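Structure first, sequence second, as always.
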């Protein structure tokens, strides 16, 4: 039995879909905070169980009978390490044979601010005694394509990544890799540095939008504080704006680059090119 936490999230749904291609639906458990949002998942034959990162008592029942758990990192910045500890403790009580955790690319050395909670979780997981695998995800291409409407409206992509190269892949690519690891023989103790097969700068990203849209879209590189303020004015929560601007600065220092091709090797195909993701976003 494989339990996927946060299964109604953007990544979680894709992991469940990938797992369904590899294992019977009855052997998959979707652990979710809001069961009502998982009606479509339940309709596929997947077990749906209530589990809330902020309700420790909910996890023993959610993980009952679990052989493997995919701990998808929480989206609540500043609360994540505590929330992840709750799941790890419950997994230990349940006698789980493998806990796979979606960390961040090069978490142990990353300059990204968001890496701190991932490092804390990784350390707790190592100390737990549980068999584990680290699925260190690089950047999702959707982190940039989600802002394309604004770029088209303003005639520019804004950021503070300079000429840093970003080896991103789509969420579907990462989800497929996660499912491969969960259904493979013995991944315990392995660390997977997962990133796109090819990399690009934000100038190249803007150029691709221009090429496909027929509109002249440039890249405007800003100081981190100024970029953060633009994101806040655009309506993003301050914590999210800080994360994105810090991550762009990290990208300028190489934090979002990796050329090991581990992701492509895991899924047995090339990762989704940035140009293809742009095309999908324009449709």
């Amino acid at each position: 039995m494989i339990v996927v936490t946060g299964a109604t999230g953007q990544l979680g749904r894709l992991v469940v879909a990938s797992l369904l291609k590899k294992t019977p639906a009855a052997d998959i458990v979707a652990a979710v905070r809001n069961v009502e949002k998982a009606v479509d998942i339940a309709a596929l034959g997947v077990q749906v169980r209530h589990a809330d990162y902020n309700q420790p008592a909910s996890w023993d029942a959610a993980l009952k009978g679990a052989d493997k758990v995919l701990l998808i990192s929480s989206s609540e910045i500043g609360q994540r390490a505590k929330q992840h500890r709750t799941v790890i403790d419950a997994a230990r009580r349940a006698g789980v044979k493998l806990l796979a955790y979606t960390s961040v690319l090069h978490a142990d050395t990353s300059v990204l601010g968001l890496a701190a909670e991932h490092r804390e979780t990784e350390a707790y997981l190592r100390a737990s005694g549980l068999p584990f695998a680290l699925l260190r995800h690089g950047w999702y291409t959707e982190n940039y394509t989600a802002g394309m409407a604004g770029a088209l409206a303003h005639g520019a992509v804004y950021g503070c990544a300079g000429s840093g190269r970003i080896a991103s892949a789509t969420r579907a690519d990462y989800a497929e890799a996660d499912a491969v690891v969960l259904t493979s023989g013995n991944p315990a103790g392995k660390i997977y540095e997962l990133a796109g097969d090819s990399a690009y700068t934000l100038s190249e990203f803007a150029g691709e939008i221009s090429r496909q849209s027929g509109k002249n879209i440039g890249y405007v590189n800003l100081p981190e504080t100024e970029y953060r303020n633009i994101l806040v004015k655009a309506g993003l929560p301050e914590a999210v704006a800080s994360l994105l601007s810090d991550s762009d600065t990290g990208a300028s220092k190489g934090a979002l680059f990796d050329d090991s091709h581990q992701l492509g090797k895991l899924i047995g195909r090339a990762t989704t090119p940035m140009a293809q993701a742009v095309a999908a976003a324009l449709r």
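Margin note: The chain has 13 helices and nine strands.
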